[in-house]
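Question (not urgent): is this output format expected?
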Amino acid sequence: METIAVRSRGGDYATREDVLAVQNAKLAGLGKRLAASGAWREHFSRAGLRPDDLADRQALAVLPTLEKADVHSRYPFPFLTVPVAEIVRFCATSGTTGLPVLFGFTRHDWQSTMCDQLSRVFRTAGIVPGDRVYQGYGYGLWIGGSSMDEALRAYGAVNFPIGPGRGELVVQWMRDHAYTATTMSPLWLMTLISLARKAGIDPGRDWKMRVGLFGGQSVSATFRSELEAAMPSGFIAHNIYGSTEAGGPILGVSCEHSHANDEMHLINDDSVLTEVLHPETLLPVGPGEIGEIVITTLDKEASPVVRWRTRDLVRLAEHPFECPCGRSGFPLIGRIIGRSDDMLKIRGVMVYPSQIEDVIAQVGGTVKEAWQIYLEQTAGRLDSLEIAIERSQHCLSTDDALVREVEAGLKARLGLSCRVTCHSEGVLPRYESKATRVIVRASADHGRKAQ
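Got this back:
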């Protein structure tokens, strides 16, 4: 039976003009579908528009964005455009606060659209049919593991759907089953590397892994380089990006060229139109500027979104349409650097957790996957920052030396003096998927304040 992997690949290398033409045609089709929905007609009316106005691309720019409040107000199935009986699968976002809202998938959404989108991701990263894939994303209502299972089946890969956990067994299976590719959190792979070494297994020698797709947690280039150095020669740790609202982990992936620059292609921009907008003005940003990802699903039959604010902040590449790989139709963005609603303001200074991670990752002797941020809140105001790190058991430096180096790096990067505490390896939490890095606590629980 023909798999998706051997279908025509022309779309992967479409020109930007071709992608824009496809977007325009699909926007018109989306408008016709949404016109049948009372909820969507009401949403468009806020801007004095009707859904079928999407036939003119200029209408998109004046539409109100979709916010969390919009979907919460339409709990439990926000903006569902087909009867529930036509849904084959529901998923929920992992970060939703309060009662989760569910996003539906028709059979076509799940078995065709999403599989086509992920197949393009697989091709871009160099996964091929027949690869033995350790699927390490989680399951349940989260879209990560279940979408990968469906797409790997359609693509013709050999799937080992283990999910996260069972680390002591997995490190042996990675050797014995000779997995060649993986999908998981980068933090989980670092944990597996540590577990393997404790079990007398050398990942670089005993594993056969060639490529990995790592999402759910954005990590620094330094962290990624450490992963690659511990793995077999030539192993590439590709960044991957997506969301439940987008229809899966299908928005971004690095290629063999952009990987070195810590960048990703918006690889399905012809089926999920992606804008990079200033988080306050909501105007498009220019090359090299930081903006928020805003998405419109062009092909999804159930639970489409139009101008959904992901709150994820990225830097648009300096030359977004000039990658040597030839995928010039799909713009380049940097890795996720933070969220517009999670940005920390400490004594008037804007701080992103990714900045702190970058500093820690560049200090030799720290455990790269283990760090926490503690914030002190006084009268509703965040006024001090404490960073907890771990010292590797093989590090020759003292705890005090590591603390001084990290504090100096944070001062130089943030312009703030931060308290740093150093712990032995293994003390701080480990995370199998998304990490909870920021913890706010009352001032009474805090020791010496940052100066």
